[in-house]
Amino acid sequence: MSAPGLLVAAPRSGSGKTTVTLALMRALARRGVAVRGAKCGPDYIDPAFHQAATGHPSFNLDSFAMEDRLLDAVGHLATAGADLVIAEGSMGLFDGIVAGEGRTGANADIAARYGWPVLLVLDVSGAAQSAAAVALGCARYDARVRVAGVVLNKVASPRHRRLVEAGLARIGMPVLGALARDASLVLPERHLGLVQARETQDLDARLDRLADLAEAGLDLEAIRALAGGAGPSGRAGALPRPPGQRVAVASDEAFTFLYPHMAAGWRAMGAEIVPFSPLADEAPPERCDACWLPGGYPELHAGRLAAATRFRDGLRRFATGKPVHGECGGYMVLGESLEDAAGETHAMAGLLPVATSYRARRLHLGYRVARLRADGILGPAGTCLVGHEFHYASELTEAPDASIALADVTDAEGRPLGLAGHRLGHVTGSFFHLIGSREAPSPPIG
């Protein structure tokens, strides 16, 4: 039987989902509960915080980017060995793309698919009884989803809490605890979200403080009792296939955004993942037969990467006969140059004809559906891939022509976005992070 689950969601972003999620995870783990985490949607920072709080990997669950078999396989990974699964939502509970029921990428799709009740986090700053109207709307909006109770966040005073609870009592909504306004609870952020778990100072102490607040302010036993659902029953065979038997993966503060289910899928099929650090001037090990440069923050470390001659020379040698792929930040490093926020231009690996800049910041955000134009490390020509793009950097060079473009790309609703990414020799790269694939390959594009 799968472990029972619970989705921590909210009516909108910024309500305190991550705070409540981490507080619950750490508090229950300290009580000896085998807690496992999951993240709804394409966020690649929060799962690392979940892992720090629980001591176990956390996985992304995405109803748009993952086909059913992959979604259930990843869900099975998330529940393995668990007494309780706590999934954290992203944005608002029902926020997603315009698509068929169950395929929108919204948190609600995951709750509905696995029968996980919703614990709704309400930011009640600036409201009192009116917060109940918001909770009522969330409870009635989608009949597939059960909002089982609420946690109040940013409560100003005992009187404020009484007023909010009076409204919630009127609609029969259980209140399972409250957290006061406290600026010290806010985790540090930067331009792509939270500062990464591995870079957050005193993270264990912060998590323990959150757990202490959960013990004091939340009804942990009642919240645990809410959990339910049938849970996923997928198998490892639906997970992503590895790009090689031994995969060199860049891993340090500049390269961190590899989705956990990707690495888990590679390992499940017998591949060995060999980490190396470009910031430590390490080259991809020659014994590997593929190299993967994940996304991350190369724009914050451009000077060090430009000075890492052993890394860049070794990467060039590797690419003469073996496949190399870069996602987002990795793509920027595979290019000719990277302009940092101060306007200084740094030489990169020069393996793809692209120059990027972080100086003129512009948000690029959304799902991407890509059809490969040629055979390569990501699959045969015609393969349909689904991923996500989230960055502020821009390309200074012209868009690739058809002879060197990686893929034809649309947004989630099928609107064409033109050619994207580059391929040259054994090297490929693009700004989107791969999550899953769609139907079997179709014939190559002409």
Give an overview in words.
The chain is an alpha/beta fold and 446 residues long. It has 2 domains: 5-226, Rossmann fold (3-Layer(aba) Sandwich), CATH 3.40.50; 239-437, 3-Layer(aba) Sandwich (Rossmann fold). Helices cover 27% and strands 26% of the residues. The strands form 4 sheets. It has a 10-stranded mixed sheet, with helices on both faces. Strands 3-2-4-1-5-6-7 form a 7-stranded parallel sheet, sandwiched between helices. Strand 5 (118-123), helix 5 and strand 6 form a beta-alpha-beta unit.
Brief summary:
The protein is α/β, with parallel strands linked by helices.
Radius of gyration equals 22 Å
* Multimeric state: single chain
Supply the CATH superfamily name of the largest domain: P-loop containing nucleotide triphosphate hydrolases
The residue ranges in which pLDDT falls below 50 over 5 or more consecutive positions are: 440-446
Our measurement of the CA-to-CA distance between the termini, rounded to an integer number of angstroms, reads 49 Å
Counting H and I runs of at least 4 residues, what is the number of helices? 12
SSE-based structural type: alpha/beta
Largest β-sheet summary: 10 strands, mixed
- CATH top level class name of the largest domain: Alpha Beta
Work out the number of β strands.
23
Mean residue pLDDT: 93
User: Which strand order do you get reading across the main beta sheet?
Assistant: 11-10-12-13-22-21-20-17-18-23
What would the principal axes of the Cα set say about the shape?
elongated
Identify the CATH architecture of the largest domain.
3-Layer(aba) Sandwich
